[in-house]
Amino acid sequence: MNWSAVTKIHFSQFEIERSGDEQTWVNLGSILASNQHSTNAQYSFLDKNPLNGDNFYRLKMIDLDGNYSYSDTRQVSFDFLIYTIYPNPASDKFYLSGGLLENAKSVVIKNQSGITLFESSGVLEDGISTNKFSDGLYIIRVRMADDSVRTLKMVVSK
User: Fold this and answer.
1) Which of 35, 57, 117, 125 has the fewest CB atoms in 10 Å of its CB?
2) Which CA distances in Å does 92 have to 87, 101, 108, 134?
3) pLDDT (tens digit per residue) in 64-102
4) Beta bridge partners of 104
5) Which residues fall within 8 angstroms of residue 60, CB to CB, at 6 or more apart?
6) Which residue in 84, 92, 86, 18 sits closest to 53, CA to CA?
7) Residue 88 class from Cβ within 10 Å (0-12 exposed, 13-18 middle, 19+ buried)?
8) CB burial class (10 A; 0-12, 13-18, 19+) of residue 138?
9) DSSP-based three-state secondary structure for 89
10) pLDDT tens digits along 3-42
């Protein structure tokens, strides 16, 4: 989270708050205000443990006299679904699991030279055979239903 503050208003500190529902807010930390005159002070804060899904953030801006106001709310979404390839390394066939299996629109497998060796619309629940793959490292790109792309690595060792 990055923000700047014009120092015409004398803040003592900023408290960073997060909510998963915009109703219950948790104080994540605070940063003392710079209060240097005639400049825009720059601030930054990192949420080290965001919630899975929607996160709503706001600043509680506290004046030197103790009065406070809130910034506008900003929304950030995180996707912590577990995406797994197993077994890895694979010798005969491998499987995609978790959110990959349920939400995949297409799968492309390329070798380290970037040559496409496998393409499929969706994921095969019966797994993907490695018969046509030689030993080595492969890049798997899975296009999800929302058009985002997940990139994973797989090793074939026969």
Assistant:
1) 125
2) 9, 19, 18, 11
3) 899 999 999 999 988 776 778 899 999 999 998 876 677
4) 144
5) 14, 15, 16, 17, 27, 68, 69, 70
6) 18
7) middle
8) buried
9) coil
10) 887 655 678 899 999 999 999 999 999 999 876 655 678 8
